[in-house]
Amino acid sequence: MRAIWIFMLTVLLSGCGYNDFQANDEQVKADWAEVLNQYQRRFDLVPNLVEIVKGAAAQEKDILVGVTEARAKVGSIQATPELINDPKAFAQFNAAQGELSSALSRLMVVVESYPQLQSIAGYRDLQAQLEGTENRITVARKRYIEAVKSYNVLARSFPTNLTAMMFSYEVKPSFTVEDEKAMSKAPTVNFGAPKAAPAK
């Protein structure tokens, strides 16, 4: 008799989306891990970038300090897998990453005024790594958005929403509409080509 109840419970759970929740949740976790991986890659590149720019453009102290402080703010937030189940923590993490992106963008604009940076050893390699990382971040975030969308549709649709309520499967946070618009075009990291010397 017990075996029959277990069998019926298994059929009931599989028919109401329980297994789909497990699969979708694992996909969200995997895609979020990749987002964190790419953000960490960028995080690790920033000190090298700051040091190289500092050597050639020390007078841009405010910009360099802004990048360093934005990086420190990102580092102060513990980016755990559980972050995707806490909308407030997710928003704070996303805001900190946004500040770092903005600080790096401001730095890139300033860097264009220093063509001598192009001749510094390792600079072009760093440029390529940063460009590649920004593109990977864009792709990883897009995949995460798609995975969360699938999960959230399951959590809100009938009859699987009943399963969500029964097992406390909450809707997961995603990036904002503004973020999605920005991600529709891959960011460009342009350190600037050497400019011609001013005419004498």
Account of the 3D structure:
With 200 residues, this protein is mainly α. The chain has a single domain (20-183), classed as Up-down Bundle (de novo design (two linked rop proteins)). It has 7 helices and no strands. It has helices at 2-15, 18-56, 61-76, 87-111, 123-156, 160-167, 177-183. α2 runs antiparallel to α3 and α3 (61-76) runs antiparallel to α4 (87-111). It is elongated, with a radius of gyration of 23 Å. The chain starts with a helix and ends in a 17-residue tail after the last helix.
TL;DR of this structure?
This protein is 72% helix and 0% strand. The protein has 200 residues and is mainly α.
Total number of beta strands = 0
What does the main sheet amount to? none
Mean pLDDT: 81
Helix content: over 70%
What is the CA-atom radius of gyration, in angstroms? 23 Å
User: What's the level 1 CATH class?
Assistant: Mainly Alpha
Report the β-strand fraction as a percent range. under 5%
Using the alpha-carbon principal axes, give the shape. Answer: elongated
Fold-level CATH name? de novo design (two linked rop proteins)
Going by CATH, the homologous superfamily would be LemA-like domain
Q: Which CATH architecture?
A: Up-down Bundle
How far apart lie the N and C ends? 97 Å
Structural class computed from helices and strand pairing: mainly alpha
Model regions low in confidence, pLDDT < 50 over at least 5 residues: 183-200
Number of domains: 1
